[in-house]
Amino acid sequence: MKPTLKFFPTSLLVVLLAIFQQTVRADVSLPGFFGDHMVMQRDVEIRVWGWCDAGEKVSVTLDGKEASTKGSEDGTWKVTLPAMAATSRPLTLRVKGNNAINIGDILIGEVWLCSGQSNMEWTVAASTDREAEIAAADFPLIRHLKIEHRPSTVPLDDVSAPWTVCSPAVAGTYTAAGYFMARKLHQELGIPVGLINSSWGGTRVEPWTPPVGFKEVPALSDIYESVIGRTPGTAPYQNALSNFIDKSEKWNQEARVALTTMETIKPSPAFPDQLRPFQSHQDPTMLYNGMIHALVGYPIRGAIWYQGESNHTEGMLYFEKKKALIEGWRSLWNQGEFPFYYVQIAPFQYGSEDGTILAKFWEAQAAVQQLPNTGMVVINDIATLNDIHPPNKQDVGNRLALLALKNDYGMKNLVANSPEVESIELAGPKLLINFKNTGGGLKTRDGKSPTHFEIIGPGTRTFVPANASINGDTVTLSADGVKTPVAFRFAWDKLAEPNLTGGTGLPVGACRGGSEPDFLSRLAIDQEYELVYELDLSKLQNKITYSVDRSGAASEFDRVGYLIELESETTGSQKLFVSMDAFTDDISKIAVPQFSADAFFQQSVKNVDSYSTVSSLNRTGIEGNIEFWSGNYATQNTANVPGASGAIYDFGDNMSEPLNGYGSMQVHDTSGKQTLFAINHWGSGDGADIGIGNSDGPHRDWTFKSNAGSYSGKSLKVYVRPTRTLKTD
């Protein structure tokens, strides 16, 4: 039987075709953060964009202003509307294509991007006076948008988030730093303020940075190469993947042969780590991709930033990373060098970490102000030393607002910046520090003398607390024992909460200046000690031969000192001078412990002072321990040295035979569980173990490190403090 042909009425075909066309065409759409209650930036062209069918006509109107376009081949569209003045009159944005979209209650005002880690994400509800602040948060012209946490390995073009109108019902969820800044701006300017809050607690700066930012900063080329190497389509990625495919195909062929011949075969090639996509939200570009990229192009006045705790150990490298972030964002936003204001992180305990690590980070944060259109808020006066999140975000926001009001909104007479050092004058026993931006003269919060100043000069082994006095814009410094101060530092510790401010109350941030004397000049060792032995450690051998040996001229002494100097491409220049009460009256036993000298010491030493270019080793009055012997040793803590381990080589090891074997010359800070210096296995020459501080290997005291050959320069000098002058040669 032949099949029966069925015919449909023309009218039915038309209906079916229309339904089909409706199912395949795309509705015109906007980014997910375009929504009711949004704020658009005043006085700049307004950019509006989205998605539609290729060739689809799209028209956009806002307050009588209209623009139209057609969808491009990739299904996107964009238009630009003329700049508009600020208005608190609600407007409606209308977008019409194959469908229509109406977005209502739009205001024209100031838009600020708020980003960073937990102190930016910190809410009004968690801040000081939260109940009163929330109850008073009736500001319908302030709007807030929070981007959800969303890392991504690729740039995402869309993000959905609702705008909310500031009221007591929702203000508690707002970024506190951003809200208090917006409130100040709104009260001063009387115009709407919109906050785009894209922040995530605990995050580093790298994930917020776009690839182009890393590319333009030579110091971060390794990060850029890592990002590009993981990006499909780039030459490094394509080459690495092609090489892997070639190796894999070759292995597959060999495997098929081995399967037939029943022969063994080596393992298959491993997938290259450099091609593996980033996994963590802390990896470079991950938060730029997921939480910033979709916003790029939306006109803003500027950005505020509160971050750094997660990068705080990096010193000046952080300056390079902030440069990459700021310049990367600016290049992509394509609206020039928009303002970028940020908060210097607060003093905080950070465990047992050396206090100067945070000080050096503050210095790096301050250096970011070298970039155009940037400004920093100092908050060392509102810290909570036991809490990394100071709840006083009101002052943070107000200080951010001051920078914007002065620099962006024409209030030129405002004092917005904290005082900064302008010049230093050497005046004999005094040092004069002249400040700028003082707001009418320096003062202290408590009316007392300025705190947290330190000075140093030749013969001064460390910075010492200074007596400080104020005269207008100048602080005068002096200290007993510092005859000629040449350098100062201020608030140079993680717990520093100084009292010095400008006339308007803005605090002075951590700083330093002058020309610090070099390490040896500070020590002035020759004024107190006499050199007995000098040894070029590049000439180590089983029988030690000193380039200087004045032991025959020695008389009585009450202290012993060791100066070790190391040069390395990895660690740079390291120097340490450690001294202690004499542990023997035999001058032949105080240097490298030779078997012939019968020098065997596993004992505590008293009144140990340590001075070093490694800041964590600068301590006085140390409870010390020495391990000097020419023989072998084991990890067992048979001497019961307090706190020592019996499982690793550290400051509590056990001498063992042969007595003329491996060899140990180690000085330790017992209570600090810290090796001060170690010279071991000297009979091995370049294979000896040498180091200052704790080793980064499995054993704290450098045992088995075999690293002597890695130093380009290395020397040891042994001193005594005589009870009467040594005889001259």
Distance between the termini: 129 Å
**Average of the residue pLDDT scores:** 94
The total of helices stands at 12
- The percent of residues in helical segments reads 10-25%
From the alpha carbons, calculate the radius of gyration and give it in angstroms.
Answer: 34 Å
Described by the principal axes of the CA atoms, the overall outline is flat
Q: How is this structure best summarized?
A:
Among the domains are: 420-517; 525-722, no CATH class. Helices cover 19% and strands 30% of the residues. The chain is built from 12 helices and 35 strands.
Question: Your description of this structure?
Answer:
The chain is of the alpha+beta class and about 725 residues long. Helix content is about 20%, strand content about 30%. It has twelve helices and 35 strands. The strands form seven sheets. Strands 1, 3, 4, 6, 7, 8, 9, 10, 11, 12 and 13 form an eleven-stranded mixed beta sheet that branches. It has a ten-stranded antiparallel beta sheet with strand order 25-24-35-26-27-28-29-32-33-34, with no helix packed on it. Strands 14-15-20-19 form a four-stranded antiparallel beta sheet, with no helix packed on it. The protein is flat. The chain starts with 9 loop residues before the first helix and ends in a 7-residue tail after the last strand. Residues about 1-25 have low confidence and may be disordered.
